Amino acid sequence: MQKWARLNFQPALPLRGDRRVTGSSEHIAVSRKAAQEGMVLLKNDGTLPLSSDKKLVLMGKAAVDYVKGGGGSGDVYCAYIHSLYYGLKSKGVSVYEPLIDLYKEEMKKQYDSGRVPGMTEEVPVPADILKDAAAFSDTAIVMICRFSGEGWDRSSIECNQEFNPWPQSRSMPSFSSEIFPDGDFYLNAGEKEMIKAAKENFKNVIAVLNVGGIIDCSFIAGDDAINAALYMNQGGMEGGDAAADIILGEVNPSGKLADTFAARLEDYPSTENFHESFDYVEYTEDVYVGYRYFETIPGARDKVIYPFGYGLSYTTFDITVTGAKELEDSFSFDVKVTNTGKASGKEVVQLYYKAPQGKLGKPERALGDFVKTKELSAGESQDITLTVTKKAIASYDDLGKVADACYVLEKGSYEFFIGNSVRDAKNTDFTWENAEDITVERLSHKAGPVSLKKRMISDGSYEELPLGAARDINECVFEKMEPGTEEALTPFVRSREMHYLTRPFKEGAKTFFDVAEGKVTIDEFMAQLSDEDLIHLVGGQPNTGVGNVFGMGNLPEYGVPNAQTADGPAGVRIAPETGVLTTAFPCSTLIACTWNREIAEQIGCAGGEELKENNLCVWLTPAINIHRNPMCGRNFEYYSEDPYLTGRMAAAMVRGIQSNNVGASVKHFACNNKETNRKHSDSRVSERALREIYLKAFEIIVKEAEPYTIMSSYNAINGHRASENRDLLTGILRDEWGYKGMVTSDWWTRGEHYKEIKAGNDLKMACGFPDRVKKAMEMGAITRADIEPCAKRILTTILKFD
Predict the structure, then answer these.
(1) Which sign does the torsion angle of CA 614, 620, 624, 625 carry?
(2) How many CB atoms within 10 Å of residue 278?
(3) pLDDT tens, 613-666?
(4) Hey, is 654 helix, strand or coil?
(5) Contact at 8 Å (CB) between 408 and 304?
(6) Which of 258, 270, 308, 501 is a Cys-bridge partner for 291, taking CB atoms 3.0 to 4.6 Å apart?
């Protein structure tokens, strides 16, 4: 086929041979394998695994109200969805059916009323059914599910300060206020009553959590009447099958938590000011996010129910450090892992480091590396090596206490810990004694705060920060558009008069095919384009084929194709009316809980294949913002509270996607940790926390996987909208990290198009605003020279598609 034939002619041919790979059994098997490896066994007194001939009672409407993933752009349309009930039944397990029938009937009523899976009321169990169920079996599985989605956080709080193009739709926060009056972090009254009934009527009670984030698990950990618990997470289309595989012992659980589970929402320091204002969020906890807070701050350790990196198995492992050494720029640890139990299984070995407190203050633990073993049979061992670089363990000095605007290794003792969770990691007895302060990397201040008054330090107190002049995120050389009026606008379709058969291209034009074939340089190609052509290129383009989130390029008179994008990250999101059903993979948090880079890469490769087969070019995934607080409604799309785990797992995903010569779009750059008023909220964060926590995963992915595209976020960062933030998009991303790819805005951001161009945000999605860019040019606020680099990066990206 001619280059870009799929884009220009939309043949929709099978990618491999004569059979389509989209939604194929092979890809669904990848999804199920990931779900199996990412589910976390939280508790087990020996009750699990169960025998397949064991009769079971499934309690809780979540038995049929299965949540495969989250809502919004992270949703996926697939051929089927398998609940735990389905998974058990398919294996021949006898399940008490009258209760299932009750749940199905009640869920249908609630769905018909406008509710969605996970945002439904618990169903009271009649006394006669409960009595009959207790006679049927002595074992009950109690199920809890949760749902969240784009555009709202896990609470009843919502912001209505902007034009709403969908006023007829009832908001999810309003449903949440009815179903979870205390917030969905906690069990509601119906769930508490259901669990109480299970404990009173059944000898064995197993809890299964179909939750893509964190909830209060004290009802599990603190109650011996709950015999076992599985954090099922949101496992994609065959998540119920995967959970059944584990419950019945056909698969040994090997997932580890990617977040710290505390007892109360208020235990997370970011909760206090999460909803303090619609206009800003103050990141006062600074670098003490997740386990960095709970393992460091006095008194916080006792608030943890299940620690970061934690997860049980049906077997046991011995982890022995056999060697440790300092290399020129890193530290290396040799470890022997032995399966000391009776069942085969996998273990995750985790390396943590502790830097000296020094002048800057440091967390007690930080993840440095991890390896998941192969499947080890009983008695089998595997030798692995863990490595952490000196740059990785350095801290950023943003106040000049040691070396201003530098990554530094302060003098003192650096300790290293290895184990299978942040709590169970043991001191290696290898200590690096650093005799003097070392400057690892010298940078300059970028994207720093002007309105953040204070930040936490390692003893739990706060230090004051210097303030500056407040910034106006809506500053513009002419009148801004009324907020919200641009929401959901579609790209303008330009009319072009060409004779397709005799003159398919503009007369005398150097075509983009000439560039692809090396006959013309991209600079020579661009020199012939008018200002209007360049402005056209830096805005989103109309949908074609099965695309539904618009494209880029689209200069047919010069041979530039219209390259389409597709939503993610739990699968390639194609509208159901097309008839194309794709594979629904587990949510990103579950993928992180696998701690298995190979599986992440396999998911990326499979998703990239489905993207390419359907004539799409950029998959808007992975989403990698930090789990700063459990309330963030989009946490299911993101990986972890830890930037290193996030970066390494998502880099593998990017490699898998781009092995197909299609692009990943790593999002949301950066600090998109709250959905309420997301398009206007200012994330106020110190430069140190920005670099060490919120940008670190992006940095890892840029340097390790070279993503084709990165998506800037909706929110502002320290007074500048992310898509307009030159320090972020040019200073850090390109100048410091050496990024060569393209930056796209998030869809219908409130950033001003000409300001985004000047900042280095190359493509404005879903549509550009050419008249406003032209007006800015006329006023001297922007020049052709500002637009050319953006257009060139877009064209260079399209050249990569095959």
Answers:
(1) negative
(2) 17
(3) 999 999 999 999 999 999 999 999 999 999 999 999 999 999 999 999 999 999
(4) helix
(5) no
(6) 308
Domain topology for 40-252: Rossmann fold (3.40.50)
758 backbone dihedrals φ, ψ, rounded to 5°: -65, -30
Cβ proximity of 321 and 335 under 8 Å = yes
Distance between CA 176 and CA 147 in Å, rounded? 10
Neighbours of 426 (CB within 10 A): 11
Mean pLDDT score across all residues of the chain? 96
436-484 per-position pLDDT tens digit = 999 999 999 999 999 999 999 999 999 999 999 999 999 999 999 987 8
Pairing state of beta strands 40-44 and 228-231? antiparallel
Nearest to 142 by CA among 130, 154, 152: 130
Query: Dihedral, CA atoms, 7, 10, 15, 18, nearest 10 degrees?
Result: -160
77 CB burial (10 A radius; 0-12, 13-18, 19+): middle
Q: Which CATH class is domain 291-464?
A: mainly beta
Catalytic positions: 746
Residue 306 CB contacts under 8 Å (≥ 6 apart), including other chains: 42, 217, 221, 257, 260, 261
Instruction: With beta carbons less than 8 A apart as the criterion, state whether 458 and 361 touch.
Output: yes
Contact in structure between 364 and 296 (CB atoms under 8 Å): yes
Give the residue from 409, 70, 87 showing the smallest Cα distance to 248: 87
Integer Cα distance of 613 and 205 in angstroms? 46
Burial 241-254, CB ≥16 within 10 A → b, else e: bbbbbbbbeebbbb
Structural contact between residues 204 and 138, judged by C-beta atoms closer than 8 angstroms: yes
Question: Structure tokens of 382?
Answer: 């595997």
Q: Where are the alpha helices (DSSP H) in 453-538?
A: 512-516, 522-527, 531-537
The CATH fold assigned to 512-800 is TIM Barrel (3.20.20)
Q: Where are the domains of the chain?
A: 40-252, 291-464, 512-800
CB distance 311 to 592 below 8 Å? no
Backbone angles phi, psi at 146, to 5 degrees: -140, 155
